[in-house]
Amino acid sequence: MRKLLVANRGEIAVRVIRAARELGIGTVAVYSEADQDALHVKLADERVLIGPPAASRSYLNMDVIVTAAVDLGADAVHPGYGFLSERAEFAEKVAAARLTFVGPSAETIRLMGDKARARSAAEAAGVPTVPGSNGPVDSVAEALAEAEQAGYPVAVKAAAGGGGRGIRVVADAAELTEALPVAMAEAQAAFGSGLVYIERFVPNARHIEVQVFGDGQNFVHLGERECSMQRRRQKVIEEAGAPGLPEDVRTAMTEAAVALAKVSGYSGAGTVEFLYDPARGEFYFIEMNTRIQVEHPVTEMVTGRDLVREQLTVASGAPLSFAQPDVEFRGHAIEVRLNAENPDFGFMPSPGVISSMRLPGGPFVRIDSGFGPGSEISPFYDSLLAKIVIWAEDRPAAVARMARTLDEVEIEGVATTAGFLRRVTDVAEFREGRYHTTFLEDWIAGGAGK
């Protein structure tokens, strides 16, 4: 790999560019008209304008991006996360242009992108799945039969959905009868496929994921991440590892994740997401994300492994640089997603120009951001302003360090979630590691989030 085009923007584009430069790989940034002064554009060796601000005409324009890579002599493309990172068609177009796609094969992306097929693959690998339908349901009658067998409440999920999108929870047969046609129509509109399937909904469940890595021949895990602190099914705070997770469950979960990577001949970084039912002590496969995750830094902090660097070397044809016995875990890490949003107005995005920006520092504090003073938060893209990541020798020390770092955040020009996140660090349930996927929503609804 000599020259890498980074098909993304913001902090992940900066992250990839930095890893590539440390390996001596030339970098090309793509940017829209809204991002011409962005940090990732300034850091790259070369840059190319790919279109107007709307993502559909720039960062999601496959042909323009592949053409730019070819024209500028790049021999590889890193998709980052979001945008085109899990689009099998994009991986195929990159390969058709005789370029290296930094990620798994298009076949694997397509398999894991279809949630119903992914569920079947997990079952074939012996990975526990949530009780529910073995694939999409075609009618209300079929959905009712599957729900009766799984037990209410159930979740209606879009087969092509992901990242917490395309999910409806229903309490009984009457709600399911009404919700199914609506869910199918919404899935068709949002994902281009109206296929949905049925799963048992687990109350007070925890969302725990396992980082896996493969080179097509060798497969390892790098431990679990706790991702249960969510708002509208979007992760807000992530930890490595998961507080209070029984050791036998942790072992079984990580082994299951590696088994799934193995049956798919996985290559690159991937994440296997599970739902953990503390009441039953059971875990179930949710989905596999075939890309680097937003929250990958917490895994890097507790393992000392550079996951993006490993992505680039494996994509270049090198074997994994470590085996499972080489992966050691030390201490505890927490990441918060600092967004340009106003919690006092329903977390409404707060676009604008950052007039001043002071982010925290000190020992074992890492900031991943694509912005600085004078940067503009565009209304065209997500509102992630920075990821604040900290490490400490144990969880209580990590929580204290995160609270201290959030106290140091000073940003003017746009509203941020810093104060909200700081208040969460004082909540007893968070400090004691006793939270689940709907905890934060309930806490906010009770008025405690303001």
From TrEMBL:
Enzyme class: ligase
The Biotin carboxylation domain, residue ranges: 1-445
Enzyme Commission number(s) from the entry: 6.3.4.14
ATP-grasp domain sequence ranges: 119-316
Keyword Nucleotidyltransferase: no
GO terms of molecular function: biotin carboxylase activity
Keywords, in A-Z order: ATP-binding, Biotin, Ligase, Nucleotide-binding
Signal peptide: none
Pfam family, one: CPSase_L_D2
Family matches, as InterPro entries: ATP-grasp, BC-like_N, Biotin_carboxylase_complex, Biotin_carboxylation_dom, Biotin_COase_C, CPAse_ATP-bd, PreATP-grasp_dom_sf, Rudment_hybrid_motif
Full protein name: biotin carboxylase
Recorded name of the encoding gene: accC2
